[in-house]
TrEMBL record:
InterPro entries: AB_hydrolase_1, AB_hydrolase_fold, AB_hydrolase_sf, Peptidase_S33. This is AB hydrolase-1 domain-containing protein. SUPFAM superfamilies: alpha/beta-Hydrolases. Signal peptide: none annotated. One of its GO terms (biological process) is proteolysis. It comes from Deinococcus cellulosilyticus (strain DSM 18568 / NBRC 106333 / KACC 11606 / 5516J-15).
Length: 258
């Protein structure tokens, strides 16, 4: 696995790449995450797929940006695929990354062989002020972890973005930036969801606060060639809550493409 960088216009973005001569899957994390979110999947699929994990703008080791519109994210992804010299890829995205994946497919259907969309809908109306009032720095790593536990949020998910500098322990992302990014994700995107008919795996957790089971079933019913897999005991972070089950259904779906 190799960490690399490329430029989308003047923004330097980071990614990891298994750099093998295999079919390509590009993974896109959700808000407040980073590319390492899908490193376990990268390892699970390394015998059959070249899995490339992108740190999207404002996340991980990628640069912070001034703008986080839908067009910004989709242009980054397009520039990334051109940078890699790829004609066609499979896109996997969770939450923010899932919207980016199916909206990119709607605009560039010739470049997307298939989609794996993880717990995000065609209509999105979720809180956008998460983490805005969090302290910027903590004196110790344990203090940061204790704060996450107090917030009843995912210590594992946010832990992927933890960093230490001369001011103490904090996060690589800027909460106010990602709040603006979330604002742009809100809306009705049914036209984008229904614009393509490439093979698609839709994954939903019954305990999710982002995508309801009813909407997930409607998405699968309305769009051709869409397979819905539900995880009754999982919430929004299916890939973390049941990694074995998640990796298994993704692998099975991808095998059908080979």
């Amino acid at each position: 696995m190799h960490k690399k960088f490329f430029y989308s216009e003047n923004l330097r973005l980071s990614y990891t790449d298994t750099a093998t001569d295999l079919p390509v899957l590009i993974s896109l994390h959700g808000h407040f995450g980073r590319g390492s979110t899908f490193h376990p999947l990268q390892q699970a699929l390394q015998d059959q797929w070249r899995v490339i994990c992108l740190d999207q703008r404002g996340h991980g080791y990628s640069d912070h940006a001034e703008s986080y519109t839908r067009a910004d994210y989709l242009n980054d992804l397009h520039q990334f695929i051109l940078h890699l010299g790829l004609d066609q890829v499979v896109l996997l995205g969770h939450s923010l990354g899932g919207v980016n994946a199916y909206q990119y497919a709607a605009r560039h259907p010739e470049r997307v062989q298939a989609l794996v969309i993880v717990d995000v809908g065609a209509e999105i109306d979720v809180p956008t002020d998460h983490a805005l009032d969090w302290p910027r720095r903590f004196p110790t790593l344990e203090a940061l972890r204790a704060f996450l536990r107090e917030q009843k949020t995912s210590e594992k998910y946010f832990g992927e973005s933890v960093m230490e500098d001369e001011s103490g322990w904090g996060f690589r992302f800027k909460a106010d930036h990602l709040s603006r990014s979330q604002q742009h994700v809100l809306g009705n995107w049914w036209s984008d969801w229904l614009a393509t008919s490439c093979p698609t795996l839709l994954i939903q957790g019954h305990k999710s606060w982002v995508l309801s089971t009813d909407q997930a079933r409607e998405m699968a019913r309305k769009r051709p060639f869409t397979t819905l897999v539900e995880f009754p005991e999982c919430g929004h972070g299916v890939y973390q809550e049941d990694p074995e089950g998640f990796n298994g259904v993704v692998r099975e779906f991808l095998q059908g493409l080979l």
